[in-house]
Design goal:
disordered N terminus, binds adenosine-5'-triphosphate, binds iron/sulfur cluster, binds magnesium ion
């Protein structure tokens, strides 16, 4: 197993979660029928927490959050619940949802150039966000836009306000996106592969910036990435997604030291060791199945080295590992490894027992 350990371990005071996603499912209209791409996903994020969401391409990392924010369009049928600071977002009317989106919940994407408007200067785009979410206009908006660019580490911030996205590098455009996200003073920032398009040095700078901003503002972060190194560096807690389901969820230290699900183990085995002897990397054979072609039972069964007959018998539930109230996995073998059926606790039963204040290791709300 790769000796990759998360560097960040914080103690989180836990009360009601900032975001509580429950039973979230997405069915896409593909012509004559609907196909389910997201299967009853449960996720929570505490205030100030960083939740890492990891998985290969096509596992449902993006559609989870696009569904929560009502950004999937009419061909998507969404069911379940997403309660943000006490407000149900699923089915919320467009106007209040628009106010929350980009305001208290901000998003940044992998490709900032495509998210920014190429024909408008940077300053105008940030000022529009400030007008929309904070009611600022004129000189005060401009001054705040300059301050935000300064805060995200842009040199010559006043001059940058007059430039167009194509005049900036990828890393600078990502900083502009982050400045726009900060315009609404968000409680939750959803960062979908925010550094994937950037080279390693700039990637590290942007991750440092996100960490600093979080420390300054106390905002929570949902960090979506296919890169376990990024997740290990940043996350308090990690949700591993596969084929539209959360298949493992745990505090970062527990996940990286003791991965339980064969898929997570496979992702870790595919990572190069930073120290120690060189070894051949073990890529997981095969590819993520499309939502139309999921194998019967466990969706990972056609790629799993531990598959047995029982694995084809219904999708495994996300259950607490024996001896833990915070580490969950959806795998028949994990169930079988538990000594006694009573030691397997359904995740929602654990949630109901969580006291109002506890450390991140026990955090499961
Ligand atoms: N509009 C759509 N219509 C039909 N299927 C879709 C649509 N959008 C996404 N999907 C499918 O939903 C599944 C999950 O997609 P999603 O974009 O969430 O993956 P992801 O984990 O974010 O992958 P990546 O790492 O490549 O961004 C994929 O199989 C994808 O093909
Ligand atoms: S349920 Fe079976 S096929 Fe699925 S991950 Fe566990 S051992 Fe592998
Ligand atoms: Mg994605």
């Amino acid at each position: 197993m790769a000796s990759l350990l998360p560097q960040k371990q914080t103690s989180l005071a836990v009360s009601a979660p900032l975001m509580c996603v429950k039973g979230l499912s997405v069915d896409f209209d593909i012509g004559k029928r609907y196909v389910r791409a997201l299967h009853s996903v449960d996720l929570t994020i505490q205030r100030g927490e960083t939740l890492g969401v990891v998985g290969e391409s096509g596992c449902g990392k993006s559609i989870t959050w696009l569904a929560v924010l009502g950004l999937l369009g009419r061909r998507a049928k969404i069911s379940g619940s997403a309660i943000f600071d006490g407000q149900e977002l699923i089915g919320m009317a467009a106007s209040p949802l628009n106010a929350i989106r980009g305001g208290r919940i901000a998003l940044i994407f992998q490709d900032p150039a495509s998210a920014l408007n190429p024909v408008h200067r940077i300053g105008r785009q940030i000022c529009e966000a400030l007008a929309l979410h904070r009611g600022l206009s004129g000189t005060s908006a401009r001054e705040e836009a300059r301050r935000l660019l300064d805060r995200v580490g842009m040199s010559n911030a006043a001059q940058r306000l007059n430039e167009y996205p194509h005049e900036l590098s990828g890393g600078m455009n990502q900083r502009v996106m982050i400045a726009m996200a900060l315009a609404g003073e968000p409680d939750l920032l959803i960062a979908d592969e925010p550094t994937t398009a950037l080279d390693a040095t700039i990637q590290a700078q942007i991750l440092d910036l996100l960490r600093d901003l979080q420390a300054d503002t106390g905002m929570a972060l949902a960090l979506i990435s296919h890169d376990l190194g990024v997740i290990a560096d940043m996350a308090d807690r990690v949700a591993v997604m596969y084929a539209g389901r959360v298949v493992e969820e745990a505090p970062a230290s527990s996940l990286f030291e003791n991965p339980a699900h064969p898929y997570t183990q496979g992702l870790l085995a595919a990572l190069p060791e930073l120290e120690g002897p060189r070894r051949r990397l073990m890529a997981i054979p095969g590819a993520v199945p499309s939502p139309q072609a999921l194998p019967a039972g466990c969706s990972f069964s056609d790629r799993c080295g531990y598959v047995e007959d029982m694995c084809h018998d219904g999708a495994p539930e996300l259950l607490a590992l024996q001896g833990s109230s915070a580490h969950f996995a959806a795998c028949r073998q994990c169930e079988a490894r538990a000594d006694h059926a009573a030691s397997i606790v359904l995740r929602h039963h654990v949630e109901m027992k969580v006291p109002s204040t506890m450390s991140s290791e026990g955090a499961k709300a």
